[in-house]
Design brief:
The protein is of the alpha+beta class. It has one domain: NADH Oxidase (3-Layer(aba) Sandwich), CATH 3.40.109. The protein has six helices and six strands, in the order αβαβαβαβαββα. Strands 2-3-5-4 form a four-stranded antiparallel sheet, with helices on both faces. The protein has a two-stranded antiparallel ribbon with strand order 1-6. The structure holds flavin mononucleotide (FMN). Flavin mononucleotide binds next to strand 4.
């Protein structure tokens, strides 16, 4: 099978990580993948942070509800979006996906942790000194996988259609 297809199809959310450090080249390439995501009107309204300081990771983790595992990841990326960009959420979500796939292409597992719509989004922004005209869209906790869970997916027959939909 085509290597890109294999990478995309094999990705799963990873929440348990090994201590193995992630090479700088991997981080750089994954960020470059994110920065090349499709973006409405080519606005690129994102601001992507990378956090490796264990004390800071713990602080971020403690602010979240379903992201406590951030405390034990090797690196946490934070994707902020310029609030006034019309397609801020879509653009930053596309960048987040490309970041995750860029990491997985090197065997680095990760999990998207919600930012947008979460009550802690502003607290994370303040903690990281990000300017007020940005809002947190997502966080990506990453590291080499200690465990890759297998989650069941819906049958494509339920979630796709061709030409016109019929039930
Ligand atoms: C917008 C969004 C927010 C998510 N937020 C969280 C989260 O806060 N905590 C978490 O553990 N997983 C989070 N996830 C990951 C999903 O739980 C995961 O993608 C889903 O269960 C499907 O599993 P898979 O990624 O292994 O295919 C989020 C995913 C998306 C797209």
């Amino acid at each position: 099978m085509n290597i890109a297809i294999t990478v995309i199809k094999s990705r799963r959310s990873v929440r348990k990580f090994k201590d193995t450090p992630i090479p700088e080249e991997v981080v750089r390439n994954a960020i470059e993948c994110a920065l090349l995501a499709p973006t409405a009107r080519n606005e690129q309204p994102w601001l992507i942070g990378k956090i490796t300081d264990p004390a800071l990771l713990k602080k971020i983790a403690a602010l979240t509800d379903n992201g406590r595992f951030i405390a034990d990841c090797r690196i946490c990326f934070t994707v902020f979006g310029k609030k006034d960009a019309k397609y801020c959420l879509e653009d930053c979500s596309a960048a987040t996906t490309q970041l995750i796939l860029g990491l997985w292409a090197y065997g680095v597992g990760s999990c998207w942790v919600a930012g947008d719509k979460k009550p802690y989004a502003e607290d994370v922004r303040r903690l990281l000194n990000v300017p007020e005209d940005y809002k947190l869209i997502s966080m990506v906790a990453a590291g080499y996988p200690a465990d890759v869970p297998v989650v069941k997916k819906k049958d494509a027959k339920e979630t796709t259609f061709s030409e016109r939909y019929s039930s």
